[in-house]
Amino acid sequence: MRLLVVEDEEVLADSLARGLGAEGHAVDVAYDGWHGHMLASTGEYGLIVLDLMLPGKSGYDVCRELRAAGIATPILVLTARDGVEDHTEALDCGADDYLTKPFSFAVLLAHLRALDRRRTAALEPQPTVGDLVLDLRHRRVLRAGRSIPLTDRELALLEVLMRHPGSVLSKDELLLQAWPGDPEDTNLVEARMSALRRKIDTPFGRRSLQTVRGEGYRLVDERS
Predict the structure, then answer these.
(1) Residue 214 exposed, middle or buried by CB count within 10 Å (0-12, 13-18, 19+)
(2) Average pLDDT score over residue span 54-77
(3) pLDDT band at residue 184 under the 50/70/90 scheme
(4) Residue-number span of the structural domain to which 178 is assigned
């Protein structure tokens, strides 16, 4: 991925560039807000790491102007301030996440991976079965335009079913795809499916989550 680092502390900026380069990324660096804004405005980057206190043009202004211009590239802002107001202002300007200095490189990588997952999810078509929609970016489910609160485990199971509409999936198949490397007791699947049914079907008078006796479960658009 091509990344942009906008940081006026040159030692830090160059260190981040080397580290991110070693992780396999192509990295461009800007040491002031004007240059950073110019590069970011091209829209050619997958992610931007942006310091808030920059010479020439502040990170707040860079972020605000990029969003006003329609540049949707995920932005991780760096700040030496640890106040709630500073973090709130950064997010209100259009930043997607923030990291307070000093920070470890491992933590920076974790934040960038999380932003990349959100960016990728936003580009994917939303799985849809009838009027049931999985909003991948915000990790939520909607039916008939209404948001349905689910637990992480319920959401993981539903996502597998929605990616295989109409297909019958066994308990083992569901668990393997929902939590690879972290299997749950198959005896709990029935209870989780019952809970899902009470949330996604019962309030809407639907029967889209179906049990196929002796085989498993399937999700269908029962109206078709």
Answers:
(1) exposed
(2) 92
(3) low
(4) 128-219
